[in-house]
Amino acid sequence: MRILFITSTRIGDAVLSTGLLDHLMQAHPEARFTVAVGRVAEGVFRRMPALERIIPIEKKRYGLHWLGLWAQVAFRRWDLVVDLRGSAIAWLLPARRRAVMRGGRRPGHRILHIAETLGLSPAPRPVAWFGPEEEARAETLLPAGAPVLALGPTANWARKVWPADRFLTLARLLTGPGGALEGARIAVLGGPGEQERAMAAPVLAGLPGALDLVGRLDLPEAAAVLARCALFVGNDSGLMHLSAATGTPTIGLFGPTPASEYAPVGARALAVLAKGPPGAAPMGALSATRVAEQAAALLARPVATEAAA
Q1: 290 vs 273: CA distance, rounded Å
Q2: Residues 303, 291: contact at Cβ < 8 Å?
Q3: When you count CB atoms within 10 A of the terminal residue's CB, does the N or C end of the chain come out lower?
Q4: Mean pLDDT estimate for the chain
Q5: 78 has which bridge partners?
């Protein structure tokens, strides 16, 4: 059985779509998958079981990227084409069955919209894939010992970034005497590029003992590292979604973006919102004390076993 899975160009949306893939792999253990995904997010799927091929999509003017994708997949007959981009391409391919997600903004969490594409309820929870090589590197970076607090101080939009001083205060509250992670080591994660490095720089400067992993991990390596952490706290970002998918306790910080649509989804995951209008509040309206309290409550919460609602 051959399945073509067309997913997002963005890391966060790509991670949210992994639950649907995991469902299909369990339902069709004999299937082989071709995944079409934005180049920046292809690492999300690199260690996916049953993967036959990844086709990176690079956006081009006039929608020519769709023509390029069609040329790579049109001469094979597919048993199932799943298109989470809401494009017309699924209808232009020879396929026994097609499932196309309706496009446009609408109420509800993104993961519910993804699940509706195959008529699934509850929505399958996202997963994170990494292999022995990534596990070995993660063990080298974070050897067994004290727990690790992972911080994600970067995002793809400056308004989504929590002030650096709040991250520093939070680290003190959580890892200092009486904190929920007293004595924990700290790791700071972020993506590649100068912008990510600049966003993380004040946090790294204020935590001279922290492990600097900004721009130093590919996505499977980041997943393996996050899976070894006791807690992740970070801005609304692809890294936040990846952390939640590993099952690590994850807190996503939200202000000007809607948690109702993009809160982290995982066994122990929580969105903490800045005070103000939901989806339109400034990140500065979120205190470190409140996040620390929510983190302690999350760490005390038993692991949920049910799928995403």
Answers
A1: 10
A2: no
A3: C
A4: 96
A5: 95
Which sequence spans correspond to the domains of the chain? Answer: 2-116, 132-300
Encode pLDDT of 43-98 as tens digits: 999 999 999 999 999 888 878 899 999 999 999 999 999 999 999 999 999 999 99
Q: Which CATH superfamily is domain 2-116 in?
A: Glycogen Phosphorylase B; (3.40.50.2000)
Query: What are the tokens at 226?
Result: 């996050």
Own/partner long-range contacts of 165-170 (Cβ < 8 Å, ≥24 apart): 165/202, 165/206, 166/286, 166/287, 166/288, 166/291, 167/203, 167/206, 167/233, 167/288, 168/203, 168/206, 168/207, 169/288, 169/289, 170/233, 170/288, 170/291, 170/292, 170/295
Cα separation of 184 and 243, whole Å?
18
Locate tokens 């996050």: which residue? 226
Q: Which two tokens stand for residue 201?
A: 């720089």
Domain 132-300 has CATH 3.10.129.10: no
Given a cut of 60, whether residue 301 has pLDDT beyond it is yes
